[in-house]
Design goal:
Length: 558
């Protein structure tokens, strides 16, 4: 740990909040540049909307959402049309301020006219979303799932999912929303930070009782009631992969801006927290993605009025220690150079991780490590034999088997990690890449965008870059003049910039470029469905660019 900065380059940098250190030229950082911005409620909703436009059936796991204030008229109009076409439809909506967390500022409404417009929406944009009225209940209570996902690499895409997660319970029995109970947060919102203040909140020493439990304990219960938990897991895996596919285009733009290819820089990985709600019919719905999921393994307990103490939380420890331990195992730089290297320099930033590690080391009585690695490497390998992690209850073990079978890590048996519990992180991508690759259209649009960004370090495309894109891809013709190209650029860019998320740079952001690209695709391939129009235009552009590259190579244009 380098609490006051560091001098030597490190193998792994563990930052607390975001990617912020511009002096890293090697090693691996636990944050991607731009992740915080990419998973904000509004940006996530936009990315999901783009994917829903392209692939409506594949992306029906995200509730219908509108962005406020700009889409308020659209929201009002669409709800009116839906109500007119189905008078029995009595929807509820949930309004969530952008950038909020822990249930902050969230409220439920029955009608678009109930949106609180006074001042706050203008200064603090929000997402309004269809409220899922029929969640799965356990013990009559609503709960959500926090799953940990490791984005190990962006290019090539590598995704891992933790086999266990947390279930966070409401503390008032659930009733479908009515005007009378809309404001009852302990009934409708599952946030731990809210429910902990309820007198019904139950701290538990066991992983399958109380207001916070392991997800595997819920699966166990569902399975004993005859539910198809294997299908549920595969739906969850598919939800996670599709969500990350929706996020990667934006992440790649940030990545090339902060870590231009060809220059020395670190690689990145990140643990994300996926919040998922199960509907009564067991369909998982995505609520949100957290760039900084809490890794606390303690909770506060009020010993006497006003006197608090941090006490261990076995449920958090069970799940989170394994996630951090296995993330470190997976990104272990020594795997590649185990033979000659002796030491990992691990740059730990947040104090909680340090506490987690040291407490586990204190707990640890075993002395069976015969590793000749340095103390620092032992430091985290020892986490693996933290006593709690060894006691996976039999029932949940068998449920974990319900997760599609996983091949052991090729070098696991031979490595010094052989004594550790099996990985709690399951690789899902590229493992299931074949099933999902057709969804990666916006990724290809982003690749075009990045190619024409020109000057490294920017995230927005200037008018010249856009014109070059049109020319190089031969998209201009007698029906679509360069003057029309300029008008398209100005129209779309102005509208996106007036929505004002990022005023720092002028020019066309990725989402605006995607909109322009869809527009061009619709113009050129009129009668096809949108995803086929976009695919056709992509192939057209890529083909022209490949020919151009070949020509340049031949003529030595550089
Ligand atoms: P925050 O970041 O403030 O926690 P979330 O999007 O996670 O915001 O919402 C807070 C809680 O509200 C969730 O944990 C969930 O219990 C509930 N919730 C959010 N969106 C929906 C929805 N569309 N339908 C039903 N419940 C929801």
């Amino acid at each position: 740990q380098f609490p006051f900065g560091r001098r030597l380059p490190c193998d792994i940098y563990w930052h607390g909040v975001s990617f912020h250190d511009n002096n890293i030229f090697s090693g691996q950082v636990n944050k991607f540049p731009g992740m915080m911005e990419t998973v904000r409620k509004i940006t996530l909703s936009r990315a999901m909307r783009t994917m829903q436009d392209l692939f409506p059936l594949e992306y029906n796991f995200y509730p219908r959402s509108w962005i406020l204030p700009e889409e308020l008229p659209l929201f009002v109009a669409e709800v009116r049309v839906m109500k007119d076409s189905d008078p029995s439809w009595k929807p509820t909506f949930i309004v969530k301020p952008d950038g909020g967390c822990q249930g902050d500022g969230i409220y439920l409404i029955k009608d678009p006219s109930d949106i609180r417009l006074t001042g706050s929406i203008q200064s603090r944009p929000a997402v309004v979303q269809e409220y899922i009225c029929k969640p799965l209940l356990v013990d009559k209570l609503k709960f959500d799932i926090r799953l940990y996902v490791l984005l190990k690499s962006l290019e090539p895409l590598e995704i891992y999912i933790a086999k266990d997660g947390l279930s966070r319970f409401c503390t008032e029995p659930y009733q479908e929303p009515t005007l009378k109970n809309l404001h009852q947060v302990f009934m409708h919102l599952t946030n731990y930070s809210l429910n902990i203040h309820s007198e019904n909140f139950i701290h538990s020493d066991s992983v399958n009782t109380g207001s916070k439990r392991t997800f595997s304990s819920i699966l166990c219960r569902l399975s004993s009631r005859g539910a198809d938990v294997k299908k549920l897991w595969s739906d969850i895996i598919s939800l996670v992969i599709k969500t990350i596919i929706a996020l990667t285009p934006e992440l790649k733009v940030y990545y090339q801006s902060d870590i231009p290819s060809g220059k020395p820089g670190p690689t990145c990985f990140q643990i994300l927290g996926f919040d998922i709600l199960l509907m009564k019919n067991l369909k998982p719905m995505l609520l949100e993605v957290n760039a900084n999921p809490s890794m606390r393994i303690e909770h506060e307990q009020e010993l006497s009025p006003g006197v608090f103490e941090n006490v261990p939380s076995p449920v958090d420890e069970e799940v989170k220690v394994a996630v951090i331990r296995d993330t470190l195992r997976l990104v272990d730089p020594q795997k590649k150079k185990r033979k000659d290297a002796q030491c990992i320099y691990l740059y730990l930033r947040p104090l909680f991780l340090f506490k987690t590690v040291t407490r586990c080391m204190k707990d640890k009585q075993h002395k069976h490590h015969s590793l000749k690695l340095s103390l620092k490497l032992k430091f985290y390998l020892k986490l693996g034999s933290c006593p709690r992690s060894e006691h996976v209850p039999e029932s949940s073990e068998s449920l974990l088997d319900a997760v599609p079978a996983e091949r052991p890590e090729p070098d696991a048996a031979r490595s010094p990690e052989a004594g550790l519990p099996s990985l709690c992180l399951k690789q899902v991508f590229p493992k299931y890449a074949k099933q999902f690759s057709y969804l990666r259209l916006v990724d290809r649009v982003a690749a075009l965008f990045i190619r024409f960004l020109g000057v490294k370090g920017t995230t927005k495309l200037g008018p010249t870059g856009f014109r070059t894109f049109i020319r190089n891809c031969k998209l201009s013709n007698s029906n679509f003049s360069m003057a029309a190209v300029d008008i398209l650029y100005i129209d779309i860019t102005r509208r996106w910039n007036s929505m004002g998320i990022d005023h720092k740079e002028s020019g066309m952001c990725l989402q605006a470029f995607v909109e322009a690209f869809f527009c061009l695709a619709q113009k050129k391939y009129k009668s096809l469905p949108l995803h086929e129009q976009v695919l056709s235009l992509l192939e057209f552009c890529e083909c022209h660019l490949a020919a151009l590259d070949e020509k340049r190579l031949l003529w030595g244009w550089g």
